[in-house]
Amino acid sequence: MLKDVSFGQYYPVDSFVHRLDPRLKIVFLIAYIVALFVASNFYGLAVCAAVLLFAIICSHVPFGKVFRAVKGVLFLVIFTAVLNIFFYNGDAVYWNAPAVLWEWHFLRVTQAGIVFSVFLVIRLVLLVTCSSMLTYTTTPVSLTDGIESLLTPLKWIRFPVHELALIMSIALRFIPILMDETERIMNAQKARGAMLDSGGLGKRIKAVIPVIMPLLLSALRRADELGDAMDARCYMGGKTRTKYKKLTFTWRDLIVFLLLAAMIAGVVVLRIYLGAPL
What we know:
Blueprint (H helix, E strand, L loop, with lengths): L21 H17 L3 H18 L3 H10 L1 H14 L12 E5 L2 E4 H27 L2 H11 L10 H31 L9 H32 L18 H24 L4
Antiparallel strand pairs: 1-2
Helix pairs in contact: 1-5, 1-6, 1-9, 2-5, 2-9, 3-5, 4-5, 6-7, 7-8
């Protein structure tokens, strides 16, 4: 499960998507999430899925590696789907069968509940997959520069934009590191006879404590070492810093921007003319 966490991992390869401006990729992710929630039917989700599939092909990132991110939130996806199947209220009929398929006390399984659950699962899978594509195709340094550039207007009110972007970049970078550290600690505890995968809920919670404490100490130690390294390099924040590589828009970014505009327009048109599936 821990190895399936893809946030913060970068897949080094030369591709069309990797060469895009990081600012455009961040805006693309935000607009894509908005399009997913604007989509009110399966046709809108199909448009979003087609755009994401095209982006994955152009990025040269293996499909297995991209969709591995879904495994990290698989429990959340299944839990949300089950809740909607049993508790969604709707009387819409989509196939030749009763609207209420099964009922027991306060639990009801309806056609509308099943359709809505499938719709929600597809939306969550697309959202997680697109989010993982951002970190797969963008280095932490480029991501920091992109966030700082997009938040530049906040500098007018003396907001520490550079520091905020740096914090977000470090957090993304440390996610896979802490996951690997957690895996090593768990393996070490199992080698000492700790039963982390067996027993009841209470025993499992108690077994997690010997993992959390070393992980917390390791995170604090890494943070202290990072702070010392930044002090040794005379880091003074973003006031006097210059950039070796300046972000510029190219023809690739224009193509992606037009594709993004077409996707949003298509989702809005499908929502207006086809409405909601429920």
